[in-house]
């Protein structure tokens, strides 16, 4: 298994309020953690403009290997900022409207059928906000319930408003509740390719991605996290629709991390997305690695995304099961394990110790990205940077 000397990465981040420069800063922090754990050096260069796919170069070097990777970030921060920048009641109303569309289009039924925890994730922000509104309404109506005079409502309404604004909302925002409202608006838009300029935005990303794929490299990694997996499937699927032979002669690894493709694809209007998933799965040059973690509730654990999208006869994505607990120190894991959104981000964050999965090694290390498919949570191999060899070796260590 020869080392990768030159790699091109197209990374599609999840639904976070971070632009490309902030994703680059996060990547640099994570890369330093990985380098410390694996004992290699890494340098992350500054961000350079490249249409919808700005990039930064990563130079990683070990005792007898060196890999240069160019990482392009295709973030959707413009859409996130647009959704989160509206007045409170607009965000509230549009969020509940999106939830209604998910239910009406069969999405919620599909969530509970294929990943019940994801179903709970769907209803959580809407139920929480409803509880807050009902509590505030109860405070406002308290005088009537107690048989007090009508003028008492002046004080109870003021108290209800104060409770909602100064007590409930700050606690709800600690759980990113309104941000999750916007996430479901984005999901509906990606499913039906309508609203918030989704189709035009995907077209713009496809133009930049197509230019990226002209860069020479030993390996092309298309990595995506969470909502970014639906975006990546749309963008790369659109390119394959136009150029079925686009990847001929190239080594392509499509890596979905905590994938939420089914968040969008399980809605009935998502016919185009499901079709593009089939194109990706059927492309002989693409190796699809789907990374799952049991303790991450915000993805479709063990679900075979290609089959669920209606392509049971197509090659299925190779699933790699990982455990975040094996990537972090006991103290660090104990600190984050009850924060479901923080746990969900761990796929693209740095490790404390050597582990079977490492985002930096996947995108900037010497191993071909497809080789990570050999790792599992039950038989956890140990990566060994072999001294005196021009290859990086695997040594399997049972747990």
Describe this structure in words.
By secondary structure, the protein is an alpha/beta fold. 48% of the residues lie in helices and 15% in strands. The protein has helices at residues 20-38, 77-84, 88-104, 107-114, 116-140, 142-146, 152-174, 177-192, 198-212, 228-242, 261-265, 271-282, 305-308, 330-336, 340-345, 359-364; strands at 6-12, 41-44, 55-61, 66-73, 219-225, 252-257, 286-293, 318-322, 382-384, 393-395. The strands form two sheets. Strands 2-3-4-1-5-6-7-8 form an eight-stranded mixed sheet, sandwiched between helices. A two-stranded antiparallel sheet has the order 9-10. α4 crosses α5 (116-140). The longest helix is centred in the first third of the chain and has 25 residues, at 116-140. The model is unreliable at 379-383, 386-392 and 394-399 (pLDDT under 50).
List the helices and strands and how they pair.
Elements: E1 6-12, H1 20-38, E2 41-44, E3 55-61, E4 66-73, H2 77-84, H3 88-104, H4 107-114, H5 116-140, H6 142-146, H7 152-174, H8 177-192, H9 198-212, E5 219-225, H10 228-242, E6 252-257, H11 261-265, H12 271-282, E7 286-293, H13 305-308, E8 318-322, H14 330-336, H15 340-345, H16 359-364, E9 382-384, E10 393-395
Parallel strand pairs: 1-4, 1-5, 5-6, 6-7, 7-8
Antiparallel strand pairs: 2-3, 3-4, 9-10
Helix pairs in contact: 2-8, 3-8, 4-5, 5-7, 5-8, 9-10, 10-12
């Amino acid at each position: 298994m020869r080392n990768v000397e030159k790699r091109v990465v197209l990374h599609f981040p999840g639904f976070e309020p971070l632009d490309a420069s902030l994703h680059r800063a996060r990547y640099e922090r994570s890369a330093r953690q990985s380098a410390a754990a694996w004992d290699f050096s890494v340098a992350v260069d500054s961000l350079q403009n490249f249409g919808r796919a700005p990039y930064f170069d990563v130079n990683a070097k070990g005792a007898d290997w060196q890999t240069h990777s160019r990482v392009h970030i295709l973030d959707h921060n413009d859409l996130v900022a647009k959704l989160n920048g509206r007045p409170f009641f607009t965000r509230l109303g549009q969020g509940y409207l999106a939830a209604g569309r998910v239910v009406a289009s069969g999405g919620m039924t599909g969530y509970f059928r294929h990943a019940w925890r994801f179903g709970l994730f769907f209803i959580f922000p809407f139920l929480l906000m409803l509880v807050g509104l009902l509590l505030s309404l109860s405070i406002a109506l308290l005088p009537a319930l107690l048989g007090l005079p009508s003028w008492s409502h002046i004080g109870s309404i003021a108290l209800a408003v104060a409770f909602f604004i100064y007590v409930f909302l700050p606690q709800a925002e600690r759980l990113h509740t309104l941000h999750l409202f916007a996430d479901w608006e984005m999901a509906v838009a990606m499913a039906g390719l309508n609203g918030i300029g989704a189709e035009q935005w995907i077209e713009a990303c496809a133009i930049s991605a197509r230019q990226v794929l002209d860069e020479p490299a030993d390996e092309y990694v298309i990595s995506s996290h969470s909502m970014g997996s639906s975006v990546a499937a749309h963008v790369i699927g659109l390119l394959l629709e136009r150029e079925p032979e686009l990847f001929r002669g190239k080594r392509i690894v499509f890596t979905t991390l905590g994938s939420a493709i089914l968040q969008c694809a399980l809605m009935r209007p998502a016919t185009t997305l499901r079709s593009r998933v089939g194109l990706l799965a059927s492309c002989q040059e693409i190796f699809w690695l789907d990374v799952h973690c049991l303790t991450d509730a915000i993805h479709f654990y063990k679900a075979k995304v290609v089959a669920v999208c209606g392509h049971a006869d197509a090659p299925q994505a190779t699933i790699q099961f990982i455990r975040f607990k094996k990537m972090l120190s006991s103290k660090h894991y104990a600190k984050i394990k009850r924060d479901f959104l923080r746990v969900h981000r761990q796929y693209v964050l740095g490790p404390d110790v050597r582990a079977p999965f490492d985002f930096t090694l996947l995108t900037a290390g010497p191993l071909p990205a497809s080789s990570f498919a050999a790792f599992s949570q039950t038989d956890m191999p140990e990566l060994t940077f072999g001294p005196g060899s021009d290859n990086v070796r695997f040594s399997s260590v049972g747990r």
